[in-house]
Amino acid sequence: MTSPNSESARIDQLFTTLRSTLDQARAAGTAPPPDTDVEPVQGRTDPDGGQVQVVVSANRLVELTLDPRVKRLDAEDLAAVILKAVNDAFTDLGENAKAAAEEIDVDPDTEALGAKLDRLQDASVRQMAMFEQSMAEVVAKLMGGR
């Protein structure tokens, strides 16, 4: 079970919001197309933003880069830095997805898009929960098994 403050809960809420937006777009006839040959939207941390750099897509952590200086951080501070970087990347992903959706101007198959959104939500929430568990294990190992 995920905490209501966990990233997987936030992703689940994002997809719920997307589903609501899709339903509104269906009603207005302005929903985006389900399939295009466009590069997947990604979010990333500011490249000059700090010791942890993150790139995410809608359903996975694509890249995680740690500056060697993170070795100086205790486990709690490291976890906070990683969490902030991941959250920043997901915020950027949301902004990029919104911008990409605003550029689309075609008549879509909204039923297929809704089904795809359902599958993506399920996969994303599962993968984020697995990521959170993995990060907890990393932090526990860094703390020496405590």
Strand order of the largest sheet: 1-2-3
The CATH architecture classification is 2-Layer Sandwich
Radius of gyration: 17 Å
CATH homologous superfamily caption? Nucleoid-associated protein YbaB-like domain
The first-to-last residue Cα distance is 22 Å
Query: What is the name of the CATH class?
Result: Alpha Beta
Number of strands: 3
Order of helices and strands: HEEEHH
Uncertain segments are none
Structural class, from secondary structure content?
mainly alpha
CATH topology: Ybab, Chain: A
Overall pLDDT confidence: 76
The dominant shape is elongated
The portion of residues assigned to helices is 55-70%
Describe this structure in words.
- By secondary structure, the protein is mainly α.
- The protein has one domain (7-142): 2-Layer Sandwich (Ybab, Chain: A).
- The protein has 3 helices and 3 strands.
- The protein has a 3-stranded antiparallel beta sheet, with helices on one face.
- A hairpin with a 7-residue loop joins β1 and β2.
- α2 (75-103) runs antiparallel to α3.
- The protein is elongated and about 55 Å long.
- The mean pLDDT is 76.
Secondary-structure topology with pairs:
Elements lengths: L6 H22 L14 E2 L7 E6 L2 E7 L8 H29 L6 H33 L4
Antiparallel strand pairs: 1-2, 2-3
Helix pairs in contact: 1-3, 2-3
Short descriptors:
mainly alpha; 3 helices; 10% strand
What's the quick description here?
With 146 residues, the protein is mainly α.
